[in-house]
Write a structure and sequence with these properties.
This protein is an all-alpha fold. 81% of the residues lie in helices and 0% in strands. The chain contains three helices and no strands.
């Protein structure tokens, strides 16, 4: 059971990191007029990614101001999420794995 829970949390963190990366790339493509938000599919994808990533990125955006007009909060969020995924998550699940076996 602990292995399944670890798998689900690890996968959710991985998908969140992927969503942050795709959201950043999509915002660049929109900013450089490569794609247009008037396209209904692109608009729906952008809204979905914004809804998923905003709760994670907003605390970082409040602390870290844009540097020269560039928002580096996604980079900081990805680094922290990778740290949670690589170090904190295994450390938290180690006692569960030891108990269950």
């Amino acid at each position: 059971m602990a292995g399944f829970l670890y798998f689900v949390i690890d996968g959710a963190l991985g998908l969140l990191i992927l969503a942050i990366i795709v959201s950043a790339i999509l915002s660049w493509l929109v900013a450089f007029n490569v794609i247009n938000l008037r396209n209904q599919f692109v608009y729906g994808v952008a809204r979905f990614l914004e809804a998923v990533t905003t709760p994670v990125l907003r605390p970082f955006q409040k602390i870290i101001p844009p540097l020269g007009g560039v928002d580096i909060s996604p980079i900081i969020a990805i680094l922290i999420l990778q740290g949670i995924k690589g170090y904190l998550l295994p450390w938290l699940f180690r006692p569960l794995f030891a108990m269950i076996g």
